[in-house]
Amino acid sequence: MENAAAPANPACVINCVWYDGDGRRQDLPLELLSEKLAENAPGFAWVGLYEPADAVLGQLQEELGLHPLAVEDARNAHQRPKVEAYGDTLFLAVHTAQMVDGTIRYGETHAFLGARFLLTVRHGDSLSYAFVRSRMEREPELLRAGPAMALHGVLDFIVDNYAPIVDEHRETLRTLERDIFSDTYRRAIVVRLYDLKRDLTYMRVAVSPLQDVLAQLMRSQAGQGQLVPEGVRIYLRDVHDHVLRINDTIDTMRDMLGTALSVNLSLVTLAQGETVKRLGAWAALLAAPTLVTSWYGMNFAHMPELQPRWGYPLLVVAVAGICIGLYRLFKRARWL
To answer: Are the beta carbons of 111 and 94 closer than 8 angstroms?
Structure first.
């Protein structure tokens, strides 16, 4: 869990921290945030919120000078992944994902990046960034790089959480590929294949736009100064490479799932065709004696072969010969 917020802060304020020029931490109440920023002392503020109340967002809007349109987006959530510049502040919206009881749960993280502050707003099933904060506090040189480096830590954490989900789905796909070629058709396999493709499609919706977000961050400027220094862009480029790899993996798996579904359908069709051929062959074998016996079952007095003594045995032999001939013919044609 993240470190406890100052008592004066609302429950939705997970953290309100000031990091000085040496990366040392100082907890702050929201009311003192603007005063701390006005001191022009080296360092930056990192505020973390989870599903904040409107009053808290309104207060931070005044404290940090946030644009009302960006605040409205952060309040409502359900935003597409994007990065937008509002004066000297960047606003980001990113989708998060995590596995909970075998199901992918999605959330959102909105971030406001300023020259001396980072505000993160989490919605839904979004993991806490306590790990990111703790790791950076153990490496003060990262915090000395400013709020852009803290934003990099958040984005890197989000992307790292995509990888286990993709890996788990890859292993599931490998297992299902073996089941597809089994002799027994199982409806559950098709259902699982569909579920996997649906999950990967939703994952792609979350991951693919993040490529553009990171690309814009690596070349973006807001106001008169660069919010993302060159030294931080190198780290963002590494995150961008991870996103590209994960997105390519998702696309490859989606193609493989589409192929698996087609192969499964083809195998089912072939199996049905084999069954129909066997049924047709047995029907033909039964049709021959049925035709002959039904013919001689008609009530006519003058029919050929009714009077001879060997008529009945000859008829049995003829019917058996026809059946044997048909059986060998169908066997050679692999219908039986």
So the answer is: yes
Among residues 112, 198, 142, 154, the alpha carbon closest in space to that of 23 is found at 142
Lookup result for tokens 């001191």: 39
Q: Give CA 24 to chain center in angstroms.
A: 38
Q: Give me Rg for the CA atoms of the chain.
A: 36
| pLDDT, tens digit, 9 for 90 and up, residues 28-46 | 888 888 888 888 788 899 9
Same domain, 81 and 213: yes
Of 267, 294, 310, at which residue does a domain stop?
A: 267
Structure tokens at 62: 């005044």
Q: Looking at the structure, do residues 34 and 152 belong to the same domain, yes or no? A: yes
Q: What is the spatial distance between Cα 11 and Cα 49, in angstroms, rounded to a whole number?
A: 9
C-alpha pair distances (Å), 41 with each of 16, 38, 104, 190: 17, 8, 43, 61
- One domain for residues 173 and 95: yes
How many folded domains does the chain comprise? 2
| Residue-wise burial string across 105-117, b where 16 or more C-beta atoms lie within 10 A, e elsewhere | ebbbbbbbbbbbb
Q: Are residues 230 and 286 in the same domain?
A: no
CATH code where residue 327 lies: 1.20.58
Contact present, 180 and 260 (Cβ < 8 Å): yes
Task: Tell me the C-alpha distance between 278 and 281, whole Å.
Answer: 5
Is residue 3 one of the residues assigned to a domain? Answer: no
Residue 226: partners with Cβ closer than 8 Å, 6 or more residues away: none
Q: Are residues 100 and 49 in the same domain?
A: yes
pLDDT tens per residue across span 122-152 = 998 888 898 899 899 898 888 888 899 999 9
The answer to whether the predicted template modeling score (pTM) of the entire model surpasses 0.90 is: no
Whose tokens are 């808290």? That residue is: 56
Q: What is the Cα–Cα distance from 264 to 282, expressed in whole angstroms?
A: 27
Containing structural domain, residue 297: 272-332
Q: How many CB atoms lie within 10 A of CB 172?
A: 17
| 92 plus 114 within the same structural domain | yes
Q: From residue 169, give the alpha-carbon distance in Å to each of 50, 104, 187, 265.
A: 29, 11, 19, 21
- Domain assignment present for 6: no
Residues 87 and 194 occupy one common structural domain = yes
* Cβ pair 109, 122 in contact under 8 A: yes
